[in-house]
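Intended use. Records like the one below are meant for learning the mapping from a protein sequence to its folded structure. Do not use them to infer anything beyond what is encoded.
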Amino acid sequence: MKRSFDFIVALCALLTLLLLIIVVAVLIRFKLGAPILFTQERPGLNGKMFKIMKFRSMLNDKDKHGNLLPDVERMTKFGSILRSTSLDELPGLFNVLKGDMSLVGPRPLLVQYLPLYNAEQAKRHKTRPGITGWAQVNGRNAISWEEKFKFDLWYVENQSFWLDIKILLMTVKKVFVRDGINAEGHVTTEPFSGSKDD
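Structure written out for the chain above:
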């Protein structure tokens, strides 16, 4: 039932938001250049790798050694708007159609975090990752990693159709009030360096 619900809602959302998606894509090409999409390998259900899709929100500026500049230097006002309104997440609906992701579930994190998880934290991969999740509606990037994992694991153990509906409705509210986008003083999430309890 969850997979069917995800597919139908994602397809309807893409059709409804098609014009908005095109406008955002054109603006990104004009303001940030190419590529329009940001793709990156992430672990999904049972740790299976897939390529997540997002709208690019940062410049590709590099230093004299060819390394990307820090996020804070590459983030533009336009990119900040994309993130604060969650418009950068719209291409993730294609991941949902493909079956790589669900509308609701633990957010897919970086591959390099895999060896840093303890046994409990690794359980977040027992369900498909989501565009939004229980951690996102309970603080998103403004809460600690330990809190995020607790919310993720609670969702894995208590997931249901009605809980997904609740989280989706809470997500809409969060997007409109732009609540919990990032921790104070950071344009992106602080990297995970392992659990303090390990």
